[in-house]
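Supplementary Data S3. Sequence and structure tokens for construct A.
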Amino acid sequence: MKVAQLQGNQVKSDKTLAPPPGKMYRKVDSPPTAAEKFELPFEGKLSQDNRWVIMANLIPWEEFEEEYARNFAEDIGAPALPFRMALGSLIIKEKLGISDRETVEQIKENPYLQYFVGQKYYSNEAPFDASLLVRFRERINANLVNQINQRMVHKSQEESEEKAKKKAHSQKGKKQESAPIKGN
């Protein structure tokens, strides 16, 4: 499956999503792309406040990829798409309450959704056929989804506590700055 990259007004299709021959599932070695580094054709940047960017940062993608990889034979069948693409697509489908076909169309049209499923840059092409969502649902069971949800909640709570501490610390500093200095 080719991935198109827009440069200026030209589409460049020299990258592929399929892993090299051999094992049927290979963990993606490159670290996730930071939202500010996601390449858009119009030279814009993704907003850190977007719900899909926030959720992507809460999901421990790498932590559960090994469990997902166990669903695949070592050397039989077509190579699988990455865990982030599979889980991300299912989350999009459920969150938006749309069909499999509409999920693929939404991902194709929306750079935030493309970032959410782990693409490195915007593409005008569908990342996979809608029929693959059936396979994604078969491979990502309820137990795995529950574990991911627990980790997301835990991470969200940690981040909220960290923000509260920073806010309290900054307010404490402001109070000290505005406190009157008592003279002799």
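Construct B, processed identically:
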Amino acid sequence: MTTQTTAQSTTSTPLDPAPMSVRGKLAAAWGSLIFLILYIDYFHLYQPGEIDSIRNGVIFEFEISGALMSVFFVIIALPGLMVLLSATLPARANRITNLVFTSIYIPLIIFNIAGTTADYVFYYVLTIGVELAIMAYILRTAATWPRTAAVTK
């Protein structure tokens, strides 16, 4: 807020509430999601036995291999690429891409709760809940993308 002070009065001008584009909203949501995913995965390492499990060549009951690491890369690359795609794709392709990738990604996020122990149920419900809320926002934003008025002659 800008304040101008004169000898006689003080006036305030409101901030300009410039609207954010749908592309900007979607890119911001995907950016938030990728940061959360990375930090949640990082904090997972603080759980007892996780680092020892990795040192023993196992991640979440799966033997560590090039194929597994490639799958993990694709899972993490999707939201990272969606930041770029949401900001640059034409509107129609953007809308479809966001609806499809979000719908595919929701089950992947929910899968993270599999195998959790009672001590960490609240943590996973909380973190997955926030991720799902962001994805619901993405779905709603893409699904309700405003249409331009039809030009009539």
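The longest strand covers residues 2-5. The first helix runs from residue 22 to 44.
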